[in-house]
């Protein structure tokens, strides 16, 4: 998801009620007879410190010390494999990465792209899933070629924005967040919208985009992100190489068992997004 910090404002308002809260999630497996799959240090022994922001369907902190969302479910399974409790700190989106860099958290969650710039200061895990581009329309469009001549909205900060600007010029309207785009789409000020497929699905589940279809965009050479969707990861402490190995091997095991695909499906997302391909970085 987040390629640069200029996009983080889109959901920042959702975090205000939870920001700064820190809770401990007990893992049933974290008992005396639990045998961790790997050996590595964390900031607090026996605890995996996780920085999260509110970004459905990927990161969903909730009341009663709950953590859900695609990333939330994956990190809980990893913690269970390693016999660790989770200490969850909910912050604004910009603070997730800073929390890891400043060693206030071992790991960050919330649909973070694997980027070359980010890899300079953070460890980035093996890819979790693909963040694919979705087309939101009443007609059920799935091809870029079907959008010619129409007024299109999209949200700032995604991998596909620059290519869409080149393809559609003044017909492309940029929005700071999906809420503003959804309002204009409902008012017919734009003909269709383009957003992360997963974010669009999550918004529709909450009542947005009524009567509209959300389709994964078919590959089109004019928009590179439809050919190579962004791979997401867990940013983590770069210097902690043993933690990096443990995270990567657990992620690979969860892919092999089909659990990541299963988690995606449980949130109404395409299980094929778990087919991440070879690791790559967004330049």
Automatic annotation (TrEMBL):
Thylakoid is among the record's keywords: no
Signal peptide (from-to): 1-32
UniProt feature coiled coil, ranges: none
Keyword Protein biosynthesis: no
Keywords: Signal
Residues of the Solute-binding protein family 3/N-terminal domain: 47-271
Cited InterPro entries: Solute-binding_3/MltF_N
Family, similarity comment: Belongs to the bacterial solute-binding protein 3 family.
Full protein name: Amino acid ABC transporter substrate-binding protein
Organism per entry: Pseudomonas protegens
């Amino acid at each position: 998801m987040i390629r640069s910090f200029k996009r983080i404002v889109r959901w920042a308002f959702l975090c205000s009620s939870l920001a700064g809260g820190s809770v401990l999630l007990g893992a049933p497996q974290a008992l005396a007879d639990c045998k961790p799959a790997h050996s590595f240090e964390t900031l607090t022994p026996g605890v995996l410190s996780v920085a999260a922001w509110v970004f459905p369907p990927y990161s969903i902190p909730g009341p009663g010390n709950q953590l859900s969302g695609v990333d939330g479910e994956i990190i809980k399974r990893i913690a269970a494999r390693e016999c660790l409790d989770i200490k969850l700190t909910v912050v604004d989106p910009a603070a997730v990465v800073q929390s890891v860099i400043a060693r206030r958290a071992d790991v960050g969650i919330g649909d973070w792209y694997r980027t070359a710039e980010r890899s300079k200061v953070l460890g980035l895990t093996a890819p979790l899933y693909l963040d694919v581009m979705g087309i939101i329309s009443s007609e059920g469009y799935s091809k870029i070629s079907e959008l010619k001549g129409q007024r299109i909205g999209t949200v700032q900060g995604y991998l596909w924005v620059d290519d869409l600007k080149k393809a559609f010029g003044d017909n492309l309207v940029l929005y700071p967040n999906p809420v503003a785009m959804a309002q204009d789409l409902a008012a017919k000020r734009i003909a269709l919208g383009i957003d992360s497929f997963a974010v669009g699905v999550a918004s529709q589940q909450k009542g947005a985009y009524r009567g509209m279809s959300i389709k994964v965009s078919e590959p089109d050479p004019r928009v590179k992100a439809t050919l190579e969707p962004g791979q997401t990861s867990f940013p983590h402490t770069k210097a902690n190489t043993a933690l990096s190995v443990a995270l990567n091997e657990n992620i690979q095991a969860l892919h092999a068992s089909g659990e990541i695909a299963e988690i995606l499906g449980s949130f109404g997302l395409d299980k094929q997004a778990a087919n991440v391909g070879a690791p790559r970085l967004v330049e």
